[in-house]
Amino acid sequence: MAETPIDVTVAPSGTGCAECLPDPSGWWFHLRRCAQCGHIGCCDSSPAQHASQHAAESGHPIIQSFEPGEGWFWDYRTEAYTDGPELAPPDCHPRDQPAPGPAGRVPADWESRLH
Question: Does the residue 110 lie in any domain?
């Protein structure tokens, strides 16, 4: 039986990109949450694009925005927005966390580094 691409019981892996946070020079523009395992990765506009990298390596095709006020889902298989259920909380990074982030690591020329 195929594994379902959405698990509503799994909490997010953290409040920031799982790969960028341990890297002293890592930063992101916006965050995305894997709807299957909860991995938090940076968006495709971010320099490292960890959310889509996670999807490709793990085979987990659906993400949800992890930005405050955004509830949309994206399916990498169809490269289109899709519907999805309410996932386990929290539904976004802390509202006082800046975007881009994390605070103190975003370079002054960050806009020129976006994809």
Answer: no
Q: 3-class SS at 101?
A: strand
Q: CB-based contacts of 64: which residues, under 8 Å, 6+ apart?
A: 32, 33, 35, 71, 72, 73, 74, 84, 87, 91
pTM over 0.85: yes
Residue of 59, 99, 94 lying closest to 76 (CA atoms): 59
pLDDT of residue 4: 77
Whether 44 is in a domain gets the answer yes
Show the domain range for 47.
28-61
| Domain-embedded: residue 35 | yes
| Overall domain count for the chain | 1
Residue 86 above 80 pLDDT? yes
- Sign of the alpha-carbon dihedral angle for 22, 28, 30, 34: negative
